[in-house]
Amino acid sequence: MPAIETVGLVKRFGSLAAVDGLSFEVEAGEIFGLLGPNGSGKTTTVRMLSCLMAPTEGQASVGGYNINRDPLKVRGTVGVLTENPSLYERLTAYENMEFFAKAYGVVDDSARTNRIREVLEFFELWDRRNERVGTYSKGMKQKLAIARAIVHNPEVLFLDEPTAGLDPKASKDIRDMMERLSRQERHTILLCTHNLEDAERLCRHVMIINKGRSIVSGTTDELRRKIAGPPKLEVSLVKVNEKIVRATEVSKRVKVVEVNDAATKLVIDVDDPDDSTPYRVKQIVEAGGLVKSVQLVEPSLEEAYLELVKETAY
Q1: pTM of the predicted protein model
Q2: Predicted pLDDT of residue 159
Q3: CATH no. for residue 152?
Q4: pLDDT tens column, 39-60
Q5: Residue 90 CA to chain centroid, in angstroms?
Q6: Distance separating alpha carbons of residues 44 and 153, to the nearest angstrom
Q7: Residue 86: which domain range?
Q8: ∠ CA 195-200-205 to the nearest 5 degrees?
């Protein structure tokens, strides 16, 4: 059974459909990316799945519980990080964790103490547990906010823009933590983001939405290739001349050959780069080319994302 399953999920505010018929599945232990620009419906989707608001139409289950019939059970199954998490900055990290652990129903004193230590050590905050949160950096606050969201050991974790506004080091730390949460603690994570680096690094499956509707879903490789096609063969040489270009273009399997302005690089668009690469390199060498490097260049997820969002902007 999927950890998250939605069928025709809709949320309307008057005549505006903030979410319009979303259907997708997330497997247990997976990091699933829900991508889209601001206002695309990501946060509204998370609020419905975490039972903070009811859907107008459609069905969904989280951790095996229906969001319409069992909202209390769903809330006990999930942890939520909102885009602007609220922490009590006058309290210490430990006091924040204890307060929220009790609110989540972790009533046994020994179990609560052990879990708070476990989570703070996981996020490398234990040594600073007695410092007021107001003295923390933004990255440390974000770590603490995620720690708070998992203190009751939820099966499913909703993270809304977890690296927004962080510097590169703090962003990497948060991505590393998400990988560890999925791999070591087996949390299922729904990652809402418009940060393509996060999605490409962490997610195998993604769904891109805009104006509340799904544009496309699949693996990151499928999305890249759907928009930009297969990877291209990039060959760096000491110098590219007409003889080398003609030798490359003569093959029926070569569709396009591009030469950079410095005439030191060939970018070759072929039907099957994996099979074709040895033959193309052989042709270049036989034409007198001095090859410095060869690589297959994948289209980026960012290119695919921007192209898809642009197509559905109007």
Answers
A1: 0.79
A2: 94
A3: 3.40.50.300
A4: 899 999 999 999 999 999 999 9
A5: 32
A6: 24
A7: 4-225
A8: 110
The token duo for 269 is: 């668009």
Question: Total domain count for the chain?
Answer: 2
Contact, 133 vs 88, CB < 8 A?
Answer: yes
Same domain? For 43 and 85 the reply is yes
Instruction: Check whether residue 30 and residue 90 sit in a common domain.
Output: yes
- Rounded distance between C-alpha atoms, residue 3 and residue 27, angstroms: 5
Amino acid at 298: E
Is residue 102 exposed (0-12), middle (13-18) or buried (19+ Cβ within 10 Å)? middle
- Which pLDDT score is estimated for 199? 86
HSE toward the beta carbon, residue 240, CA cutoff 13 A: 21
Q: Are residues 23 and 75 in the same domain?
A: yes
Task: Place 227 in a pLDDT band, splitting at 50, 70 and 90.
Answer: low
pLDDT tens, residue by residue, 230-284: 778 899 999 999 999 988 888 777 778 889 888 899 888 877 777 788 888 999 9
Torsion of CA 164, 166, 170, 175, to 10 degrees: 10
Secondary structure letter of residue 92 according to DSSP: B
Rounded CA gap, 181 and 164, in Å? Answer: 19
Strand-pairing partners, residue 294, are 235
